[in-house]
Amino acid sequence: MEKEYDLIVIGSGTGGSVAASKCNQAGWKVAMIDELPFGGTCALRGCDPKKVLVGVSEYLDGAQRLNGHGINGEVTINWSDLMQFKKTFTASVPEMKEKGLNDQGIDTYHGRAKFIDEDKLQLNDTTLKGNYILIATGASPAKLPIDGSEHLTYSDDFLELEQLPNHIVFVGGGYISFEFAHIATRAGAKVQLLHRGDQPLKAFDSDLVNKLVDYSEELGIDIQLKTEVKEIRKTNNGYLVVAKQGNKTLEFETDMVVHGAGRTPNIDSLNLDKAGITASNKGIEVNEFLQSTSNPKIYAAGDVAATNGKALTPVAGTESHTVSSNLRKGNHRSIEEQVMPTNVFTLPKLASVGLTEEEASTKVSNYTVNAIDTTNWFTYKRTNQPVTFAKVIIDQENDKVIGAHFLSNEADELINHFATAIQFNLATKDLKKMLFAYPTVASDIAHLI
């Protein structure tokens, strides 16, 4: 059986949803396919459920920091209760998402779609033909050259754990490892993090990363750098992780091994070659309109597209808007390079926007760096935060902020003010004139620039 559509969207997350709805509203016949429950990574297996876990950790951390400063008594995380609370945010999403699509008139399909021609997909016993096809399948954990990699647990599974293991080893030093390591440690697990490079979280300011690493170790997380995992063995009691650290062979006994070593575009199962779609390890090759460079019927948005945008939900949404406009009106809207702040939701949180100090040194001739230990500032001292730091990079010639980096429990909100300043080219002299509510984290901005 063959069905025809004006637009077929593969993936039900942010990268596909905007375009599907906009084209449907324009009178197009639209279908959406997902091999996983409808809703996408962010809502079901990523940002949202993770932030629920982080939120509970924040309150535990706050109570512990202020113990003896007005709060008394022991506070602990009940993992089972936390998982049940998390499910109140995720359990209803797939049904609500699919019903919302169907109510709009969008047909939904479950299963793994594979290309069989430049404009055709095979899905179970059904062939779907699209005038256009938008690939928005996101990213999946990178394949690791480790013997016994089948024993790895992935972030999706971690977020569904009914019971927290006593001991966890995280492989890799990216967002996922650090965020989950902080959550698990505060929930009572013994945690080790193995990273093959000399610095984790490479996209962030190295000085602040080092401070986060030091504090993570004080918290009880064992971080082993320059340590490459070679093998994972199943044992009677759990797993044995074998790693190389220089000339040394290290072994770690654990109850669970979690993959936190990065993600890659989710394209392996699509049979792209059958549709003549060019792709690389960065994803589907697209032009400035997010159209495939080798098959004009194909567009791509989000983590699966080989663009310069960060692999973050707001970027996927923006790209989906771009695709929608180009589909409906013809290619006219290019990818806009927008300022995009990013956060690591550890405690303290690590936030970044714009250029790092290292990048500024190669791109800007006259700049200054305001590097400030803010631990004793009222904003942070009032909640007894043990380590906070700010680094703001200013282009002196133009009097503009070109980079900002923060480490604190409020970093995730503070960074947005600096993203706004960079996006709209605000002069620091004008930023200093702004009157913010006091005392708030934003009221410190004038003292940071």
Describe the structure.
With 449 residues, this protein is an alpha/beta fold. It has 3 domains: 2-141 and 264-329, FAD/NAD(P)-binding domain; 149-261, FAD/NAD(P)-binding domain (3-Layer(bba) Sandwich), CATH 3.50.50.60; 348-448, FAD/NAD-linked reductase, C-terminal dimerisation domain (Enolase-like, domain 1, 2-Layer Sandwich), CATH 3.30.390.30. 32% of the residues lie in helices and 27% in strands. It has 14 helices and 23 strands. The chain has helices at 14-25, 40-45, 47-65, 79-90, 93-104, 155-158, 175-186, 206-219, 313-329, 357-363, 378-381, 411-423, 428-433, 445-448; strands at residues 2-10, 30-34, 107-110, 114-117, 120-123, 126-135, 139-141, 167-171, 190-194, 222-224, 228-234, 239-245, 248-254, 256-259, 263-265, 279-280, 283-284, 298-300, 342-344, 349-354, 367-373, 389-395, 400-408. Strands 1, 2, 3, 4, 5, 6 and 18 form a 7-stranded mixed β-sheet that branches. A hairpin with a 2-residue loop joins β5 (120-123) and β6 (126-135). The longest helix is centred in the N-terminal third of the chain and has 19 residues, at 47-65. The relative contact order is 0.12.
